[in-house]
Amino acid sequence: MARYTLHGIFASGPTYKVALMLRLTGTPFDYEHVDLRAGAHKADAFLVKNRYGQVPVLEEVMVEVLRSLERIRLTLTSETVR
Ligand SMILES: N[C@@H](CCC(=O)N[C@@H](CS)C(=O)NCC(=O)O)C(=O)O
Question: 54 CB less than 6 Å from ligand 1?
Answer without folding.
Answer: yes
